[in-house]
UniProtKB/TrEMBL annotation:
Residues 22-121 form the 4'-phosphopantetheinyl transferase domain. SUPFAM superfamilies: 4'-phosphopantetheinyl transferase. This is Holo-[acyl-carrier-protein] synthase. GO terms for molecular function: holo-[acyl-carrier-protein] synthase activity; magnesium ion binding. The lineage of its organism: Bacteria, Pseudomonadati, Verrucomicrobiota, Verrucomicrobiia, Verrucomicrobiales. Belongs to the P-Pant transferase superfamily. AcpS family. Its EC number is 2.7.8.7. One of its GO terms (biological process) is fatty acid biosynthetic process. It is an enzyme of class 2 (transferase). It holds the Pfam family ACPS. It comes from the Bacteria. Mg(2+) binds at residues 26, 75. It catalyses: apo-[ACP] + CoA = holo-[ACP] + adenosine 3',5'-bisphosphate + H(+). It comes from Roseimicrobium gellanilyticum.
Amino acid sequence: MESEISPDLVSSNVRRPALAVGVGIDLVEVDRIHSLLEKNGERFKHRVFTAGEIEYCDSCAESAMHYAARFAAKEAVAKALGTGFAEGVGWADIEVMRGGSGAPTVVLHGGAARVAAQAGVTRVLLSLTHTRTTAGASALLLSDI
């Protein structure tokens, strides 16, 4: 059975006492992701992104910018978990979605959900930013007190 942390818990911005258990940040050059998309296309997309992420990014006018922001987000969350992409944590285990307000939300699956649960993570706060040249993300893992 696949482990999953509910997006209702993980990305909730509800204010309640919490302890920070991990923080991560990442910056990505949009041109680097654009080159990977041009060179490896569908293979790169399906190796790194979920079907939902691909559908969203492909629907955007400047898709490379949105892919880059999600790539940075996955890196930031993996760093915050303290594992990077090791210990059973894969790219598709960290899924970046848009919440109802348009704010990014994170759903953890598989190895990422397992590592997060072991660390007591109950929420992931994520911030994304991008320009035409650079995309960045910061992730904060919280455990309710």
